[in-house]
Amino acid sequence: MYDGGKIIVGLIIFAGLMTFPIWYNHGDAGAIPNVEKPKDVKECVKDTQYMRTTHMVLLNEWRDNVLREGNREKLKVGNKTYDRSLMNGCMVCHTSKEKFCDQCHLYASVKPYCWDCHFLPKETL
Amino acid sequence: MDMKRRNLLKIAGMSAIAGVAAPSALNLLMKGNVQASSSAGHSDSPSDAHGEMPAEKPTGVRLGLAIDVKKFAENKGLAEKCVAACHQIHNVPDFGNPKDEIKWLWIEKFENLFPDHSHYKKNEELHQLPFLAVCNHCDDPPCVRACPTKATFKAANGAVIMDFHRCIGCRFCMAACPYGARSFNWRSPREKDANGKLKFIKDLNEKFPTRMRGVVEKCNFCAERLAENLPPKCVEIAASAQAMYFGDMNDPHSEISKVLKTKFTIQRKPALGTLPSVFYII
Amino acid sequence: MIEKALKGNQGYWTWMIFLLSIIGVGALCYVQQFNYGLGYTGMSRDVSWGIYISQFTFLVGVAAGGVMLVLPYYVHNYKAFGRITILGEFMAIAAIAMCLMFIMADLGQPTRALNVLLHPTPNSMLFWDMIVLNGYLFLNVLVGWVVLNSEAKEVPPPKWLKPFIYLSIPWAISIHTVTAMLYCGLGGRHFWLSAIIAPRFLASAFAAGPSLLLLIALILKRVSKFDVGETATQKLITIISYAALLNFFFVGLEFFVGYYSNIPGHKHTLQYLFFGLEHDGHMYNNLVKFMWISVIMGFASLALFFTPQTRKNEKTIMIACLLMFFSLWIDKGLGFVLGGFVPSPLDYVTEYYPSFGEIAITMGVWASGFLILTILYKVAISVKLAKES
Lengths: 125, 282, 389
Known about the structure:
The structure holds three protein chains of three kinds. Chain A is mainly alpha-helical. Chain A has helices at about 5-20, 20-25, 50-70, 85-95, 95-105; strands at about 75, 80. A two-stranded antiparallel ribbon of chain A has the order 1-2. The longest helix of chain A has 21 residues, at about 50-70. Chain A is elongated. Chain B is α+β, with helices and mostly antiparallel strands. Chain B is globular. Chain C has helices at about 10-35, 50-65, 65-75, 85-105, 115-120, 125-150, 160-185, 195-225, 230-260, 265-275, 290-305, 310, 315-340, 355-389; strands spanning about 275-280, 280-285. The longest helix of chain C is centred in the last third of the chain and has 33 residues, at about 355-389. The chains are: A mainly alpha, B alpha+beta, C mainly alpha. Chains in contact: A-B, B-C. Chains B and C meet through helix 1, helix 2, helix 5, helix 6 and helix 7 of B and helix 5 and helix 6 of C.
C-alpha cells in the first residue's frame, strides 16, 4: 500500500472526529426527559405509544385534512371532542409547551417550526 | 378510461421519462394528489371576453363575492373598516413601508384596479370611488398553475388557498398573478421590540397564526370563518350597508346568484381567462 | 485527475485566492440574508424577482451555449472543435452550478427546496426547469469527465457514452426553452407574454456562451501553452455573430409588435427600458442607460466581428467578445427580468435597486462559478498539454 501510514493516521483522525459526540459525553445520553402530562385528562386522541413516536405524522395529516381537504370534523374521544389543530386542539390539554413539547424536542435536538407561526396558549408576545 | 386518470397517467409517464422525477411521480399516483393540476370544475362563470360560455356544467360549490362600490362611497370609512378588520383577525403585519408591504384587502382607485379600461374623458365620480382590491379566487388561477409545490391550490369550494407550511418562497405565483393580490414576507412578521412586544402586529388575534418570513400570503376567503358557518369578515362588516354579497354562485337561489343576475357587474381583466370570482357592482 | 488542479504557478494561486475572497464576502452576506429574510435585498412587493433570478436566466443561456461546440464536433464531425469542446461542456457545468446557487439564494425558505420533489407539480414550469437543469448538469459532468479520462489514458471514449452525448444536444435546447417558459406563459405580464421569448433566449445564449468561451480560450493562450487554433476561433466568431444578429432581430420584432400595434401593455416595458416611462408625472428610467450601453456594445462587437482586420486580430477579438458578453448580460441578465415587473399589475411603477449585500451575494456566486470553471479548465488543459508534449 502506498502511503499506508498516512492513510491509517487519516482514518483514525476521521473516526475520532465522527465519534466526537459520543466520547465527549462519556457515552452518556443524558437524563431521559420527563414530560408533564395533563392531570385531569386521561385519554388522548391516540394511545400514548403512538403519540410518542408518530405525533408529527398525525399533525401533518390534520394539517392536510383541515387546510387542503377542508375537513374540520372534530375528533371524539370518550365524551370530549377535539379540533384537528395544534393550537386549538393539542394545546387545550397540554397547556405548557415548555413542560410538554420542549422536554423531548431539546433532548432529541429536533427543532420543529410550528411556533414560528402558531401561538402557545396564553403566550405573551 | 376517464380523462382524469388519463391525464394522471400521462403526467406519470412523462415524469418517468424525465427519470429524475420517477419516484415522486409514483408517489403522486399512489396518493392521487393532483388537486392543483386539474381544474376543480366549478366553471359557472360569466362569459369570457369572446362571449364563450364554458362547456362544462357547474358542479359543486363555487364561492363568489360581489362588491357594491357605490355603497362604499355612501358609507364613508366602511371600506377602511373592512380592511382593518380583515388585517386584524388574520394578523397581517404592518411594516410601514411599501417595499415590505403585506396586504390581503386594500383600497384602490378605479384606474389602478382596471388599468385596461379607457380613462379618457373620465367620469369624475367613478374615479373617486373606493374600490376594494382582493384576491379574485379565480376559477382558473395562474398562481396555482405556477406553484411548483402545490403550496397554493384550489379548495373544493372554489377558494384559492395558501398552505404556508409548504411554500418555498420562490415567488413564481407573484409573477403569475395578474392582479397583484399576493404579498411576500420579506422579513419576519414576528419581530419583537426591546420590550418583547410584536413590532408589526399591534392587535394580535391569538386564534389565528401569523406567518413566518419567506412565504407568500394573500386573502383566504376567511376559510377559518367559513368552517364555523360565518361569512368572511369584510362581508360581515359590509352587511350593515348591504355593500357586499357572498355565497355559492353555483346555487341559483343564493343571494349572490340573484344579485349577479340583476345587477351590472364588471370583473378585473376578464380577457385573461382567469375567471375571477370577485365582481364589482358600479 | 483532480489533483492537477492542485499544482499551479503563482498567477494561478493568486487568481484562486482572489476568487475565494469574493466567495467569502458573498457567503457572509448570505448568512445575513438567511437570518433576516429576503427583505435584505432590494426586491419588493411589486418587483418580486431581482438580480438573482435575472442572473439565473442569463446563466442558463451560457450553459446552453456549450451546445454550439458539442453539436458541430460530435454530430458533424467538425475536427477543429476537438480541442475546445470539453471547454464548452465544462463551462456548462460551472454555469448550471451558478444557476442552482442563484435559485437557492432567491428562495424565501431554502431549507424547504426539496418540496419541489416531495410534491411534484407537472403543471408548474419551475418543476420542469428543476428537471432539465439537473439533467443537463448530470449529462455534462458525465460526458466531460469520461471523455477527458479517456483522453488522459489515450484511448477513444467508450461507445456507451454516445447516446448521452447526443441526448445532451436537445437537452441544451430544452434548458433554455423551459427557462423561457417560466416567463412567456404568464398572462398578466405583457412584456414576457411573447412566443418569441424562447427563440430569442436561445439566440442570445448561442452568442453569449461562445463569447465567454472564446474570451477565456484566448486568455488561456496567453497564460498557458494551450492554443484554441485559428480555425476554431474563426468558426466561433461566425457562430457568435449570427446568433447575436438573430437576437437583435428578435428584439427588433418585439419593438415592431409593441409600437406598430400601439397596444399600451405591449409598449410600456419597452418604453420603460429604452426611453423611460412617465407615470403620474414622474419619469422612471433607471435602466435606460444600461439598455443603450447594451445596444451600443452589441453593435460595436458585431462591427469588430464583421471587419476583416479586427476579426483576425486576437486583441480586437477579445474586446469584441467582452463587449458581446456584457451587451447580452445587460439585455437578459438585467433588462428582461426586471423590466417585466414594470408597470405592476395594478399599474404602479416601482423601480428596483439591488442592495449592497445582494450584489455581494451575486458576486460571490459568480466567483464560485469561476472557481469551478478554473478548476475544471486547469484539469482539462493539463491533460491536453500532457498528451501533446
